[in-house]
Design a protein that fits this description.
- There is one protein chain.
- The protein is mainly α.
- The chain is 83% helix and 0% strand.
- The chain is built from 4 helices and no strands.
- Helix 1 runs parallel beside helix 3.
- The longest helix is centred in the last third of the chain and has 67 residues.
- It is rod-shaped and about 110 Å long.
Length: 167
């Protein structure tokens, strides 16, 4: 699990890097790597928030939740600033392509997660079926063995004098 403080530090560091790079960058394309760090940090913080919903926080959940939500809000506001940088430099089509590619990547990641979940469910089902078959075979062998043993013991008690042996 990603630590809450690491997620916060990641967002704050990425925002500082992007702001510093934006001040020194000659063109928008040179901001690519630091923008990638910003959005990766934002995704990590969002993951921490999602984990918190399942009880992933240790310590003061309220304090950590407040800090994370504020950091995510700061990243979202900064994302709007980045979007405006693209718009001001007349690169709206590039921003639209970025948004479309991000949506495509997210969609593919969701499909991959679904496929992995379905594969795990299939595998679990196959394992359950194998266990059931093995247990059923074991029960059949035990029942047949017990029946054979009882028949053998009954035959031994008769010593050839049983009613079904008279001929």
């Amino acid at each position: 699990m990603i630590e809450v403080m690491a997620a916060l530090a990641g967002i704050q560091t990425a925002v500082k890097l992007v702001k510093a790079a934006a001040n020194t960058a000659k063109d928008l394309e040179s901001l690519g790597p630091v923008l990638g760090q910003l959005f990766s940090a934002k995704a990590a913080a969002t993951t921490v928030v999602q984990q918190s919903k399942s009880g992933g926080f240790k310590g003061s959940a309220m304090g950590q939740a407040i800090e994370l939500e504020l950091a995510i809000e700061q990243a979202r506001a900064f994302e709007e600033e980045v979007k405006m940088l693209f718009f001001q430099s007349n690169k709206m089509d590039v921003w639209a392509k970025i948004i479309a590619r991000a949506a495509s990547i997210n969609k593919e990641a969701a499909h991959d997660a679904r496929r992995a979940k379905e594969a795990k469910a299939r595998r679990d089902k196959e394992i359950d079926e194998i266990i059931t078959i093995v247990l059923m075979m074991l029960v059949v062998f035990v029942v047949l063995g017990a029946t054979g043993w009882f028949v053998y013991e009954a035959m031994q008690q008769c010593n050839g004098k049983c009613g079904f042996q008279k001929g």
